[in-house]
Amino acid sequence: MRYLTDAELVDQHLPGDVAAQSTVTDRAAWLDAASAQADGYLRRAGYTLPLTSAGEDLKAAVGSIATYHLASKLGLLPEPAAQSAIYLRYKAAMEWLKGVADGSITPIVTGAPTDDTSAAPLVSSDPPRGW
User: Fold this and answer.
1) Residues ≥6 apart with Cβ < 8 Å to 127
2) Which residues share a beta bridge with 113?
3) In this predicted model, what pLDDT tens digit does every residue of 58-110 receive, in sequence order?
4) In this structure, are residues 37 and 63 in contact, taking their beta carbons and an 8 Å threshold?
């Protein structure tokens, strides 16, 4: 699932030069990649995917990741890159996702972690072993 639309990425995350020099196809590819990266962290935290909705916190993280990779691809990262706002937002997004994965941050999403084992396989032995 893609967590941002192209319009949201352009309007809320991309600097003007990155928006002007990127194509819809490039933006879609980086939105897909950033969303898939976020899914890995969400999966590690135990969320059932695909999520039915994403909050502004998850959208911001995905937008920051997609922006960083798109600007990098286009050669539009300000120098020094480590001090640019694009890079700093990317690093903050990655730290946020790590916090989601380790359980110290709870994102605003629908599709919360579940301990439901109703779909888990049942194992039995004859005679019963008691575990």
Assistant:
1) none
2) 47
3) 999 999 999 999 999 999 998 887 889 999 999 999 999 999 999 999 999 87
4) no
Nearest to 57 by CA among 102, 1, 4: 4
Closest CA to 9 of 62, 56, 63: 63
Q: Which residue has the tokens 């990262």?
A: 77
User: Would you say 37 and 1 are in contact if contact means Cβ atoms under 8 Å apart?
Assistant: no
Q: Distance between CA 1 and CA 116 in Å, rounded?
A: 23
What is the rounded distance in angstroms from the CA atom of residue 48 to the CA atom of residue 62? 18
Q: Binning pLDDT at 50, 70 and 90, where does residue 120 land? A: very low
Contact status, residue 8 vs residue 61, Cβ threshold 8 Å: no
